[in-house]
Amino acid sequence: MTIERPQTPEGADPHYANGTSVATRSRFLSSVVALAAAEPLAAFASAPVAPAPSSDLRHFLALSTLLTGYGSLDAATAAVYLRNVRADRALSAALDAVVARSGIASSNPPKTLAALTATGIFASPESLAVTATILAAWFSGLSAGAHGTSTETWDDALAWKACTFTKPPATCGGATGYWAKAPA
Questions:
Q1: pTM, to two decimals
Q2: CA of 137: how far to CAs of 143, 151, 154, 164, in Å?
Q3: Residue 148 in contact with residue 163, Cβ under 8 Å?
Q4: Nearest CA to 94 among 47, 68, 43, 132?
Q5: Measured between alpha carbons, how far is 148 from 170 in angstroms, rounded to an integer?
Q6: Which partner for 158 in 5, 85, 111, 139 could form a disulfide, CB atoms 3.0-4.6 Å apart?
Q7: CB-hemisphere CA count at 13 Å for 118?
Q8: What is the pLDDT of residues 94-116, one digit of tens each?
């Protein structure tokens, strides 16, 4: 079987006959290779740039850091917890009151839990409710939202850091027999 190539005028591109593109195996393969090579670059082109945290999120993280005692809290997880607090009108108003009364947003915010306590933010039931909600979210990794409770983090829930003698279920602790050694 012989494949006939279209006749083109002298000097014309052989891949175009009568002004239309002619598909060839080499052109197809070079297109596939070009697409495959460009695929990893597409991830960089479409990767979203993380916006700077809002002042509301910064205040929430500062408050969460003082309440939990942990300084390296995940901003993305904090944004979910904050959104769920803001979705509840009573908790949202209580959070605003806590931020205002505590001085978290000031140029001289409290640096310790004792300093935060000295501001009197734990004096009202509303303040206690919002701080308890924040603590429960961080330590359990669960967050109550408009569509029910969801797990925001499992391995990074602060309860696992607080209980240094254990780890999340389904997380490997090491090679067989690792449990025979006393915890550090």
A1: 0.62
A2: 5, 9, 11, 19
A3: no
A4: 132
A5: 24
A6: 139
A7: 8
A8: 999 999 999 999 999 999 999 99
